[in-house]
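Key result, reporting period 2: structure in, sequence out.
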């Protein structure tokens, strides 16, 4: 049995943050009913199109295992159908711009009147306060949540990261909020509102940078390269390049082939527990006992010299050879893997983290499967729905409308053609 079997989700999400949340819930077995504007649908269906006429990868990779109903929630009949869906479902998830749900006539108060057990889960850019009415996209959240100011090199501009911590990261936070509210409802019998603000989600992921902000009051951040370089610290956590964010110094180092391959690099951590093995591997056995090198605090002002020496060694090996030599010695290293290497990785395919999916209009494509594995709730990744593919099915099977009622609904323009 799937973990969330029997849970019905009214999925009013679009773009990335909300859809990543409801996709996870669908993978865990919830029945996710995606509500989309007739004839238009989620804007991402038509964004970054690679195959003309087919739903984009942007959409298909974020909306697996869902059903799609076309529904105009501003049309009178559409509002009636939406009301029936709210009566029937357990959770409503939305990431509209602030106030959009109220403008549709579905305030939290109205939703509670319709179904007091309903959980209303929202992604917004900011929590209550000065910015609560702002529209927000991924990179705005990365900038407002502390990620950009702490990413990049000290002498360069702030940087955004490729990992979608603002959108997908907030979707993950929201999913946890939803299952927690469902668990609470088991005892209380009541629904509640769940809010995941993108700024808050990013800040949560930048927790260690706020740790460093407070450490600054007590002295320099000795594990940052800038300390060894004698550069004074300012009053905010600086950008730390590729320095490790934890207590064990680390860097990205060149490997064999770096001159032509932009990803011929490895991450290398000089974990204190294996320092002696590192010294042997790189051919500096005397560093094991030499004054200034033997203990972690002594090494902090020499990290540039130490990593340059380690890099002389890593540059003689491929990133995979570095892994093969260091792993048996328990030296923590990691190759910089390109998206091409990841998509071709046999191990990730075996675990279902990378999957191939068939799609009626775009053919076979590769996607990232469910990254969370439950031993008794296996995930089968199913293709995303076509726009309105399940409109009739949902009207009949979920809401119980019959032939003439459905004809009237279609005539009203509330659901598009509903012929699929
Ligand atoms: C992402 C975002 C910036 C997109 O903004 P947008 O394209 O203008 O989309 P909106 O959410 O404002 O919705 C547009 C309109 O479509 C309407 N709409 C959406 N679905 C509809 C439906 N099925 N039927 C009728 N109208 C619908 C909304 O009610 C809204 O109308 P309104 O402006 O009259 O209130 C915005 O939704 C947002 O800030 N969301 C919260 C943060 C977030 O999740 N950001 C990350 C996205 S990955």
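The corresponding designed sequence is given below.
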């Amino acid at each position: 049995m799937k973990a969330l079997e029997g849970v019905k989700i009214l999925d009013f999400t679009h773009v990335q943050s909300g859809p990543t949340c409801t996709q996870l819930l669908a993978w865990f077995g919830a029945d996710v009913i995606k509500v989309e504007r007739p004839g238009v649908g989620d804007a991402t269906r038509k964004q970054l199109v690679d195959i003309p006429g087919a739903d984009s990868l942007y959409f298909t990779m974020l909306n697996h295992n869902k059903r799609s109903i076309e529904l105009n929630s501003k049309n009178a009949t559409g509002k009636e159908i939406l009301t029936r869906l709210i009566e029937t479902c357990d959770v409503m998830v939305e990431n509209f711009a602030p106030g959009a749900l109220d403008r549709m006539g579905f305030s939290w108060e109205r939703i509670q009147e319709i179904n007091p057990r309903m959980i209303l889960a929202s992604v917004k850019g900011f929590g209550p306060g000065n910015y609560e009415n702002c529209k927000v996209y991924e990179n705005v959240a990365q900038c407002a949540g502390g990620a950009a100011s702490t990413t990049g090199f000290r002498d360069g501009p702030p940087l955004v990261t490729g990992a979608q911590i603002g959108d997908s990261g907030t979707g993950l936070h929201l999913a946890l909020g939803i299952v927690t509210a469902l668990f609470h409802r088991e005892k209380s019998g009541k629904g509640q509102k769940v809010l995941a603000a993108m700024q808050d989600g990013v800040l949560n992921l930048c927790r260690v940078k706020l740790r460093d902000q407070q450490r600054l009051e007590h002295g320099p951040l000795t594990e940052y390269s800038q300390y060894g370089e004698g550069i004074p610290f300012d009053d905010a956590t600086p950008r730390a390049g590729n320095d490790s964010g934890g207590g064990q110094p680390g860097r990205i180092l060149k490997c064999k082939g770096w001159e032509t391959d932009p990803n011929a690099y490895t991450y290398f951590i000089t974990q204190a527990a294996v320092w002696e093995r590192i010294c042997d591997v790189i051919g500096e056995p005397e560093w094991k006992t030499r004054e200034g090198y033997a203990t972690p605090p002594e090494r902090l002002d020499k990290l540039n010299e130490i990593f340059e020496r380690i890099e002389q060694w890593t540059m003689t090996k491929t990133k995979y050879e570095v892994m093969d030599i260091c792993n048996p010695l328990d030296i923590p290293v990691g190759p910089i893997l390109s998206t091409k290497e990841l998509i071709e990785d046999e191990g990730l395919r075996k675990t279902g983290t990378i999957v191939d999916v068939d799609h009626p209009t775009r053919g076979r494509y590769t996607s990232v499967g469910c990254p969370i594995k439950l031993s008794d709730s296996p995930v089968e990744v199913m293709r995303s729905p076509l726009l309105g593919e399940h409109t009739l099915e949902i009207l009949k099977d979920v809401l119980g409308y019959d032939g003439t009622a459905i004809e009237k609904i279609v005539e009203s323009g509330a659901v598009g053609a509903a012929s699929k």
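The chain is about 35% helix and 10% strand. The pocket of coenzyme A is lined by residues 15-18, 35, 37, 71-74, 95-97, 100, 103-104, 123-125, 135-137, 167 (CB under 6 Å). This case is discussed further under Risks and Mitigation.
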